[in-house]
Amino acid sequence: MDTNGMTTWAGNHTYTGTVARPTTLDEAADVVARARKVRAVGSRHSFNDIVDSEGLLVSLDALAYRHPALHLHDSDAPDPGEPASGARRGPEPELDDATGRVRVSAATRYADLVLFLQERGRALPNLASLPHIGIAGALATATHGSGVRNPVLASAATGLELLTADGATHRLDRDADGEALDGATVSLGALGLVTAVTLQTVPAFDVAQTVYGPVPVGDALDGFDEASDLAYSVSLFTTLREDVFDTVWLKQAVEPGREPAAPAQVLGAPPLGAKAHPIPGVDPENCTDQLGVPGPAGDRLPHFHAEHLPSAGAEIQCEYLVPRENARAALTALAGLREPLAGLVQVCEVRSVAADTAWLSPMHRQDCVGVHFTLVRDVARVTAVLPVIDAAFAPLGGRPHWGKVFRTDPARLRSLYPRRSDALELARSYDPAEKFINDFLRRWVV
């Protein structure tokens, strides 16, 4: 164990708690059973205190599957002194050919699982912008990709395996425990340590990515619904420096044996003739392939390559999920933030997320539009503007992403989750002594 000042990936928050890194499940069970307070720490891609512990932080990274051909970018490796991310440590995922379900160590990064599945003719139905993130953390925080028909990544989960407060192992299965699994997938870490996840895969498919722009905000307001439905996944990016969306990214699923047919224009804008980064002026080398060239979905659905620095690196992220019927109002509110966020925004992404059934998902039973901010890594200045961002989206029913920074009214936030009491009851059934409850959960959920 150590107290080495582990930080979030972006370096904006230092976690509290002593760090334990068990190398077997038995060792992990013993560590959890002996601890007074416990929280799981994964790939550290959260930006707030959701991971903080009043006692022990447990990393299951030593049990994660690492694809032997993949070397994740150094900034995403564990803390100094830990083995390189390319080293294969955990067990290989187990793919059931009959059902298409894959069981994998929960600490595994999506990039590693994607390569494993790709070699076997399978794929995940959707991915987040960064393939560097860990599976357990992505599920627990309702992390998502884009697409009007694509729900959160947790929707692919058909089973979970948990280490609970007494060190016992519990399994939940979609077929047998459907209701409970809806409460356990997006759990914010309140039930226990997730040690393994079973995910539903789909047959492998190709995606062609084409980037368009620029698009005046007025045209985006008028044509947002139509543009969002043009491809499997669609993202609009703006720096808020001008009254435009600088780029619109279309990721089209390509039918086998057919050439991709990208639209000649999107919202009046032509396709770009060169590869682009979401942040104008930044070298796009770390971005996934564009220019309409088809490739495996796992290589195109994320915005960034796993072996390169994702996004901007030095950043803080904030996101609000707004009910789809308020999309136009959300885009109008976004335009109104240009002045208060001047000098803080690196880029803002707007995308669609389909409804799901997870009890603590911001998209619970409602389609949403995500308004995501990549901000400069200036903790004091960003913290000061968070109430301004909340004031723009809270009146529209906006719910903050659990893993990003935000400031809102706790009572308002709790009221937006009709299954919150069920989620708390489920958590207490697994953790009656509240060993896994921390300040973050007490502030926003409990």
From TrEMBL:
Keywords: Oxidoreductase. The lineage of its organism: Bacteria, Bacillati, Actinomycetota, Actinomycetes, Micrococcales. It comes from the Bacteria. Residues 12-204 form the FAD-binding PCMH-type domain. The keyword Oxidoreductase applies. The keyword Ribosomal protein does not apply. This is D-arabinono-1,4-lactone oxidase. Pfam families: ALO (PF04030), FAD_binding_4 (PF01565).
